[in-house]
Amino acid sequence: MSIYGGGHGVTGAAVVDGGLCIDMRGMHSVSVDPVAKTARVEAGCTWGEVDAATQEHALAVTGGRVSDTGVAGLALGSGSGWLERKFGFVCDNLLAAEVVTADGRRVTASPTEHAELFWGLRGGGGNFGIVTAFHLQLHDLGPIVLGGMLMYPAAMAGELIRFFRDFMSDAPDEVGGGLAFTCAPPEEFVPEPVRGQPVVMVLALYAGPIADGAAALAPLRAFGPPAIDMVGEMPYVAIQQMLDPPNPKGMRNYWTADFYESMPDEALDVLVAKATNPVSPMSQMIFVPGGGAVARVDEEATAFGQRRAPWNIHYLSMWPDPADDEKNIAYTREISGAMKPWSTGRVYLNFIGDEGHDRVEAAFGPDKFKRLQVLKDEWDPTNVFCHNQNIPPTGS
């Protein structure tokens, strides 16, 4: 059985040959309570739909970095996004979940009902049932925020990434964003000779008062300076849609990722040398800072772990032609493999493809994985929900 939550699901786990596919896309209602600052979000929603509904009330919650990201897959995998340093992961804002179990029961998981299941749903993926609705805590933000994109030539990558590393090490929680190695898009704001050429982009968002954000982001905007500075006052929904054009549907994808305990100059040199020489102009190697609200949640509070890692790199390769599969996959494995000496051995599972059982177990660590298996024994002992980053029952 597979569950189609309505997002982009590049692993292909949302559909299955010779099995039953539960398609949730018809369930895409978002109900916002602006007084309580909560939302009930059905499992077929995308984050674009959630953002639109919550921003009507100047409220937001951490969501996907591309607007067609599915709420269900992101939330159950823990839920990384631009706002995480200020408001935590999606799972940190989950108040309750409505669940249909493998044996057909309808239950609610929350801190007071089926609390162990609630713990497992916050990072354990779709292993324990079908979540049909998510109850989320919202926060004051928007509708206008300070944010946008800075673009630098690839030749500046070494200096820039060192500056970005140091800048983010003591940046306030309100500063979110990431650094991306990619190629300049074929857009009007990019000089024609630069289009399609390797560049480095910094995506920044200040999740607080705009006046405070101007001072907080000033050092970042002054460095270089950037060849293109598109940081300014804009709707939060525009920030959330900023990466939509370079992530079109229908492309070939190969993803992997790792967490990093530190990022010394030697590691940055390796990353820069390889990431500034992509084999596809659509690939994006994204350098994501940790810290802030995420790191202040107790490590044992949710199934997701590795909250203290200061860096997470998402190696995202994308290309249109199946004839180019081999070279793109090889490139992605080469660059991520070269960075392994500095990795923690742990991974954010939403950022990887099918890398096998050992990788899933390593993501949680041995103690949490055993606890999740016991939970699986209780809620899905025959492993009905297996077309995912699977946690098998203990007897498997």
Short description:
The chain has 396 residues and is α+β, with helices and mostly antiparallel strands. It has twelve helices and 17 strands.
Structure report:
- With 396 residues, this protein is α+β, with helices and mostly antiparallel strands.
- It contains 12 helices and 17 strands.
- Strands 10, 11, 12, 13, 14, 15, 16 and 17 form an 8-stranded antiparallel beta sheet that branches. A 5-stranded antiparallel beta sheet has the order 3-4-8-6-7.
- Strand 3 and strand 4 (38-42) form a beta hairpin.
- Helix 5 packs across helix 8 (265-275).
- The longest helix is centred in the C-terminal third of the chain and has 14 residues, at 325-338.
- It is globular and about 60 Å long.
* Average pLDDT taken over every residue: 95
Q: Tally the beta strands.
A: 17
Helix-strand string: EEEEHEHHEEHEEEHEEHEEHEHEHEHHH
Discrete helix count = 12
User: Given the C-alpha coordinates, what overall shape results?
Assistant: globular
Report strand %: 15-25%
Question: Which structural class should the secondary elements be placed in?
Answer: alpha+beta
Rg over CA atoms, rounded to whole Å, is 20 Å
Distance between the termini: 17 Å
What's the story with the biggest beta sheet? Answer: 8 strands, antiparallel
User: What percent of residues adopt helix (DSSP H or I)?
Assistant: 25-40%
Spans of at least 5 consecutive residues with low confidence: none
